Each structure stands twice: as structure tokens, then as C-alpha cells.
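Usage

Read records sequentially. Each one opens with the input sequence:
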Amino acid sequence: MEIITGGVTAAKGFKAAATAAEIKYKGRTDMAMVYSEVPCVAAGTFTTNVVKAAPVKWDQDVVYNHPAAQAVICNSGIANACTGAEGYGYCKATADAAAEILGIPADSVLVASTGVIGMQIPIDRIVNGVKAMAPKLDGSLEAGTEAAKAIMTTDTVKKEVAVQIEIGGKTVTVGGMCKGSGMIHPNMCTMLGFVTTDAAISKEMLQKALSANIKDTFNMVSVDGDTSTNDTVLLLANGMAGNLEITEEGADFDKFMEALNYINTCLSKKIAGDGEGATALFEVKILGAKTKEDAVTLSKSVVTSSLTKAAIYGHDANWGRILCAMGYSGVQFDPEKVDLYFESRAGKLKIIENGVSTGYDEAEATKILSEDEVTAIADMKMGDATATAWGCDLTYDYVKINADYRS
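and closes with the structure output:
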């Protein structure tokens, strides 16, 4: 596998564009379009929140009930959530506008929105944005980057990644972009993610790959414990790499899964590290758990602990908060067996051994915790299951950002 520069336009046949439609923001782009030269098979995973935004419902219908998808239209600023029949109608109006100008079926157009909940989107501006983007569609890496920038809300950086692998003697590319900074605590994925590939793969196997991989990637991210109404990850495959179609599990499917896992892991970490107000990516690794389910529960309990997140912000090796968070997770374990380490680019330090402090050097611990990527590693000594979760520190700025998000 080779890591390459790029995002959603890295794979053959994919183009992108962005425009400033002034849906909510002024002086910046706020709409993006991703388009494939040929129809794609599509897979998707969506929020488990009972309150689902209109675009989620629209995309579920396209992914589950239609054979192909060819375009994605995304706006930032307004989420089109809790907007009733009118909001769902605007999804159709967006798809109709894209279908007309691109010459494709409306039921092959996916839509996505992110931003403030409860506001109706200005459909006239959305339609005008679609019309403005279609002539600008371009397969360059720069076009993909501009699309990644356009879908940002409180994100501080664009998020994109791409890789290449070889399947059946053909070069296959997988690329993706996402946005997410707040309201991040998924039960399937987080906020909005779009992954494109030129691999030839059946719709069934594409969905199988995405659904399986989400569990260890986007599902393991938490910024603030709030599951969004709009969580969506879409995966489009247009087959233009020319490999023999992947229709079953085996070596080719495993290679594709490896590439998809890299893309989704990178995007997940980018979201966690760019959490609202965050100064550090906080990674929690659980080793030696009795079961995979236990490992997942333990890692998520620690990464979502407000007290632990605050300690990470303060570069304070307050390990008692981590042990406490594992203790109330619901997982049964022996606290007198647990070893805990802190690790970053500044080094690795054993903090507790068999549930008791090692007498570590506080200054060294502070130095390790002062990096912008920090990992806590807990060895439970109960089995051989592992899991990794990603989050961020909790800062004053998180409250500031969310106290006046609508104004």
C-alpha cells in the first residue's frame, strides 16, 4: 500500500467542485459536489440517532433501494434536520437540480448537510450552488481539496487522505474526505465522510467492507458524547481501475479492506484531533481485555470521560481518573492487575503497575502529555482482545464555541 497525496478526486473518474452559495457563511465556500464519470455502486452507514436529518433518510433510500449513485451534493452551515416534509422535499429538489444539469437520474444523487439543526435550507441558493458547481467539476487534486474545505463548519483544517494498492495486477486508488469537529459520538460513523474508489467491487461486498470497518474506525471516535442527527459515511466505487470485480471474500477483498481501513482510520483521527477547541488528539489503547466488546467499552469509557479529557488538557498525569472511568464502564476486571502507560513523541512512561502507582517522575509525565498527540495504554491482563478509541482534550474553547454556535 502506498500513501499518496489527494482525497476524493484521487481515484480514476472522480471529479469535484466547490462554491460559495452563502447558505449561512459569508466570504467562504460552503457547498461541494463529488461526481463520477460513470455510475458507481454505493455503500453507506448512517446515524443511529432516532432523530435523523432529511439527507440521511434520502441517502438511505438511494443506497439501499437503488442500484447506482453518481453524484454527491453537500452543504455546510445548515443541517436540514428536524425540518419535516419540507426539508425532505428540499433533498429531492437538490437531487433534481443536479440530475438535470449533470444528465443523470435523480435517484443516483446523494445529498448531505451539516450545520445548525432546525433551520430550513434556502433551496434557491442550494439549486444555484449546484448549477454553479457543475461546470467547474474537475479531477485535479486541488479540486478535491477545495471540496474538503467547503464542507467544514467549526473544523479548523480540511481532512482528506488517499492510498493506492494493487489488485489483480491493476492499480486501485481509494481516497476520502470528511468533516467533523463537534457533536461527535457516533454509533456508526461521525458527521460526514465521503470515500471514493476506482475498484471494481460488487455492491454487496462494498457494503460489507464499509459496515465491518466502521466498527473499528469512525465508531471509535468521540469528541463530546453527542451523536449527530446527520452522521453519514458514503463509499462510492466506479470500477474504472479495471481489476476483476471483487464478488467474494479472499485476497483481493482483504487488500481492499486494508486500504479502506487506512483511509477511515486516518479520517477518524483527523476528526478527533480537530475536536472543537482541542489542543491534543487523545488516543486510548486497551490491551489484554477478555473480549473485543470489553476492550471497546473500556476504551470508549476513558476517551469520553470529561475529567480525563480535562486532565489531558492540563498535561496532568491524573491516572486515577482513567482507572475510575474503566471501573464504571460496566466491564468486569481486576483493577489490581492493570498496568497503565502514557506515550507520545516525547517518550513512554509506565504510570501504574498492578493498579498501583510506579512512583513515576511527574515532570517526565508532564513532558509526555504536553505533545499534540497523546496515548494512554492500559493492559488489563485478562485476555488477548484489544481496541483503540480516539478523542481529544476538553478545553475552555469548547464551551465558547458551543455557547454561541447559532449566532
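Summary fields computed downstream for this record:
- The domain at 281-403 is CATH 3.10.20.340 (Ubiquitin-like (UB roll)).
- The chain has two domains: 2-272, 281-403.
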